[in-house]
Amino acid sequence: MTETRSRGRLEEHLAGLVEERTEANERFFTLEADRIARLCHLMAERFARGARLLAVGATGQGRSDARHVAVEFVHPVIVGKRALPAMGITREGGALPSQLALVAEAEDMVIACDGAEETAEAIGEARRRGCLTIAFEPSGAEWELEPPTDDPFVRQELSETLYHVLWELVHVFFDHRGLLAGREAGSLHDAGGSSFLYPFLAEQDRDLEGVVADVRASVLMKAQETAGLRAQTVSEAASELVSGAELLRSVFESGGTVLALGNGGSATDAMDAVADFRAAPQGFPHRRALDLTEDSAILTALANDIGPNVLFARQIIAYGRVGDAVLALSTSGNSANIVEALAEARRRGLHTIAMVGYDGGRVAEERLADHVVVARSEHIPRIQEAHATAYHALRELVELADGGRATSGEGAAGVVAQSPSHAA
């Protein structure tokens, strides 16, 4: 009976998390939809003139968002849309203002992905150099779009939706050549095969306000889709998230580690999850976590000498210990290196949690993980946004799983010795 009450309390907490996000999402995008649409136009004009987008972040969470911004703009998953020049600039390369002083040019755009003092200093440097500046936290940027909540997880999730929307809708203005300064109008046409991404849109090269109005409506629609998928994902996966949190709590209390992994945007989600376990912005106890996407030398060596399918499995062989846990993120649920990693983890006595999209792919169909969370969508940005809510919820539930409250404090898990490594 006590266990039933505990699980019920955790599932009730999940329902509260969804309600909080739904309300904040509606307030934020209703308030900012017009500014977001106009910012998309300004960004398209700068990209058309050869500018780059530089995403900066000083914290672990900001680093993951900066990398996420870069991969989305450079590797477009929208069929037929161009790759746009973007790069993540984080503290691995030194102080952010110094890096921008070397890299940023006057036409570039700089987006701040956290509210750290160093990030604000970088925004100041960018403004001095004539860059267009954007921020999700107060930092002195020209365009500050601050989520209306004090919860750091919710703020980050709304910011992720925002930069996804900027990436998706900046392309609209490339389809309206006459609306970009210095470019001639093209022939009128509809959005063709990409129309599902751009509702209500048809070519209107002479009517900026008309296109801005359509983009504004699309912003609101995408925000509604995100809210709906977040709610559906957490509701359907409530039992999996609670069980996964109880599992991770046990792993941490036994001195174990969570190993996180994913590809592309899901790799940045793994970065974020690890940052949240190691040093959550709420001040939760520090938990052992390892990011298997982090070391480019290891990743490129494995990809070059063996092949991409072993990127994570080989690292699990090297680092995984009996009783550890793997957190795997995949929008498709079919990525070969994810499937092989989960199989290797099971062979070596590691627990497994997977977050996937679409219909769950092989991971869900073949039940390749102990706990599987499915975000049922075919739209990759929306899947990743739902995954962010899911792993943030999982992080909070870890601190509630023993019947306590998710409050700040130092955890003992960070100093408990691990068991000897499992033989390779």
3D structure, described in words:
By secondary structure, the protein is α/β, with parallel strands linked by helices. It is built from 13 helices and 10 strands. It has helices at residues 2-48, 60-74, 96-103, 117-128, 152-174, 208-236, 238-253, 265-279, 296-305, 313-319, 336-347, 361-365, 380-400; strands at 53-57, 86-90, 109-112, 132-135, 143-144, 258-262, 289-291, 325-330, 351-357, 371-375. The protein has a 5-stranded parallel beta sheet, with helices on both faces. Strands 7-6-8-9-10 form a 5-stranded parallel beta sheet, sandwiched between helices. Helix 11 (336-347) links the parallel strand 8 and strand 9. Helix 8 (265-279) packs parallel to helix 13 (380-400). The longest helix has 47 residues, at 2-48.
Distance, first to last CA: 42 Å
General shape: globular
Helix and strand run:
HEHEHEHEEHHHEHEHHEHEHEH
Structural class: alpha/beta
Number of helices: 13
Provide tags for this entry.
single chain, 424 residues, alpha/beta, five-stranded parallel sheet, 13 helices
Describe the secondary-structure layout:
Blueprint: H1 2-48, E1 53-57, H2 60-74, E2 86-90, H3 96-103, E3 109-112, H4 117-128, E4 132-135, E5 143-144, H5 152-174, H6 208-236, H7 238-253, E6 258-262, H8 265-279, E7 289-291, H9 296-305, H10 313-319, E8 325-330, H11 336-347, E9 351-357, H12 361-365, E10 371-375, H13 380-400
Parallel strand pairs: 1-2, 1-3, 3-4, 4-5, 6-7, 6-8, 8-9, 9-10
Helix pairs in contact: 1-5, 1-6, 1-13, 2-5, 2-8, 3-4, 5-6, 5-13, 6-13, 7-13, 8-13, 10-11
